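Human: I would love a firmer grasp of how sequence relates to backbone shape in proteins. Take your time, and here it is.
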Amino acid sequence: MRKAFAILLFISLFAGVLAGCTAPQAAQPSTGAQPASQGDAGQAAPKRVVYLINGALGDNAFYDSGQAGIDALAAEYGVETRTIEANFDAGKYEPSLQAAVGYADVIFVISYGFEDQLKEIADKNPDKVFVNIDTVVENSAGTITSVDFIEEESAYLAGVVAGMLTTDTSVKNINADKIVGVVGGDVDPVVSAFVFAYEKGAQSVDPDVVVETKSLGGAWDDAAKGKQAALQLYDQKADVVFQVAAAAGIGTLQAAAERELYAIGVDTNQNDLEPGFVVASDIKDVGKAIQDVYKTIADGTYEPGAVLQYGLASGGVDLVTDAQVQVLPEAIVAKVDELRQQIIDGTLTVEMYDGSDVWQ
């Protein structure tokens, strides 16, 4: 079945190339592990880019942010692009990688769940550019570049917002209990890092703030489960819930509106999805990272095997509070601005996730 899927997927990708009058000439592989780029004299520039994701587009968050970056590459550089969605089906991961290698010069990949297959295929294809998004993956050949977001920095700010909001009973429907919540798509290290920093931020406001957690157990695309989990947290007296659950988190935002309480969005600015109830969004700008990395490929400064960190200082992550309906008191917005600058300046150091169990 996997072989059949790989053949079909490769044919569907390659058909887009054959649709033109002439197929574009493939980029010439470089010697060694260094891929071709515009900055290398005598070598062709990349012509085809694949965006390979373990999940699916339409999440209004993480995956869609990456797609925006891919679309920008097509517009700016004239490269052909294809997106391969594995839809969280483990049986599609390796065939999708094979199809990507058969089509593209540059492969941006979100490899949750198939890191080992990525390493193996990258080792066998040293002339291809592999850029792994959101986790660090290191292969034997040292050719996979990783984009590592410092999500703790922005999640800390999200926690500060939640902590200040839950302790301010002058805000409509905020109760006297110092309880906030978080809905995570799974208990993986990246989501756990969000939760860890969110709790640190909330408790920096008041050590008595309690952070209640709900994991969806990998149901990233199930908005009904995301809504149910949030409703349970609101029933536990939480008045602010942070969603770190991709498409499922849209249900969390809906639950906030239904209960006339508050939520914090993730990955993209979701503040206007439920106006008046989404008070902030923790941005992870996957599209910016893709554009930044591709620029180095195009200008010849790309370094295979590098680990590129994106935090507040680089604009890779942030917390945004602008919205059509502004709920946050100005004091909270001002505090976020102050702390953001302190983190960027280095006068405030946010503690990084230490691997501890944040789901107790």
